[in-house]
Structures are given as C-alpha cells and as structure tokens.
Amino acid sequence: MKLLLRQKKFCLLILFLAISNMSKAQTPGTTDAKNSMNSPSYKLEGNAQLTSNFVSRGLTQTNKDPGLQSAFWFNFGPQFRLGIWGSNVHYEGIDSHIWVRLNGDIKIDFSANANLVVKYSNNNYFPSNSRNGNTLGLHLDIYNVKVLYEMESNWEGTSTSSTHFAFQKTFDVFGSWKWDNQLGYSMLKVDTSQNYFDLRSFIGSSNGAFEYKAGATWTSSPSQFNGRGDLFAIFTIGVNF
C-alpha cells in the first residue's frame, strides 16, 4: 500500500514537471529557432551491445555468462521519448531467459548545464513472470555530474520494493577515451538481504558508430548474493544506429 502511494505521488510529480516544461516551451513570443527546437522530431534511434557479463547494480543478470542487449527509442521531440529494450538473462532456479523493458523519458532542461530526466520502465520477463515489475526514476545532471534516484517495485523477484541512489561522473582521458565511474547504494525492503553499495568503473572509446569499453563492477557484500555480486571484470562492444 505504501509503495502504491509513493508511485502515485511520483506519477503526479512526473505530470506536474511535464506540464510545466511543455507550457514553457509553448510560451508566446518565442523565436522560430526555439519553436523548431521544441517541435517533434519523430526520430528513431537505437543501439546494441555485446558484453562478457551483464551486470546491473552490481549483480550479474546472466549468471556470469555473456549478454546481448538492444534498445530502440522513438523521439517525440527534445523532451519526450518512448522506447523498448531487451536482453537475455539467466537466474539460478528461475525459468526466465528474456528481459524486455518498455521505457518512457521526459527531459526537463533547467539551464545549459543542468537537466532532469524523469524515467519510467515496465519490466517484463519471459517465460516466467515472477520478476515482473516497474521502475520509477529521477536522473539529475548538473555540470556533467549525475545524481540518480530509482525505485523498484519488485526487487530481484522478491515481491518487495527497493530504492537505489547513485552518483556518476565521466572523465575525458587519453584524448578520445572516456572513464566512466558510478557509486550506488541500494536500500532493500526484503528481510533476507542487507543494504549494499555497488561500484562500477569503465574506460572506453569509440570509432564511428562503434563503442568499446572494459572495466569492473563490485558490491560491498558479495557473500549474501551467492556469487552474483562478486568483483567482475567486464568487456563490452556496442554499436549505435
């Protein structure tokens, strides 16, 4: 019941921010350039990546095996987009092999160096649906430092909620190379697991549409996850289209 109330409040916040931002975009007296920036682009974009181990918030989703993910986004303008994302998964004792996520983003620009993205994802697993749920999030970007806040309705198939906080920063190194770092903290409601930190650090570059990176992920209490939250070295190659 408490989770439903939190989600309703969150949805109201999404609606309020969206209406406020759209009303600003439609304020009379804007220039033609501004009007063109706020007009729908209807642009379709996507990406795909192959990774040696698909890890989310420090926990492997493929039982340490390789993962293949792909995403498609339809842009309705610079502020709003809808998309679909999918990946193979593998969990011990659970007959789920495919994870499909239906996504929606609303971006709100405060200034040239600050914006907020309100995110919603509907998570669907096949063939077993025991891990189905949804994710609500706020991603704040201030001078290229990201502050992430996300709520899960069904954390790791436990039918309990979780809250995840994270800080992310990307540094330019070695010319065209980028060093991406993220520190997160998950607050869990399930009695069988404790709150934990997760850390990910990757360095990578790109060549045209292709991207490649290598790094590692780690959790502060790997023993409670039976090997799913160990220190992992990961290699990834992807393409944008």
Question: What does this protein look like?
Answer:
This protein has 241 residues and is mainly β. Helices cover 12% and strands 56% of the residues. A twelve-stranded antiparallel beta barrel has the order 1-4-5-6-7-8-9-10-11-12-13-14. The protein has a two-stranded antiparallel ribbon with strand order 2-3. It is globular and about 45 Å long.
SSE succession:
HHEEEEEEEEEEEEEE
Strand percentage lies at over 45%
Count of beta strands? 14
- What is the general shape? globular
Strand order of the largest sheet: 1-4-5-6-7-8-9-10-11-12-13-14
Write down the Rg: 19 Å
Specify the number of helices: 2
Query: Which percent bin holds the helix content?
Result: 10-25%
Biggest pleated sheet: 12 strands, antiparallel, barrel
Distance between the termini: 42 Å
Low-pLDDT parts are 17-38
Average predicted confidence as pLDDT: 88
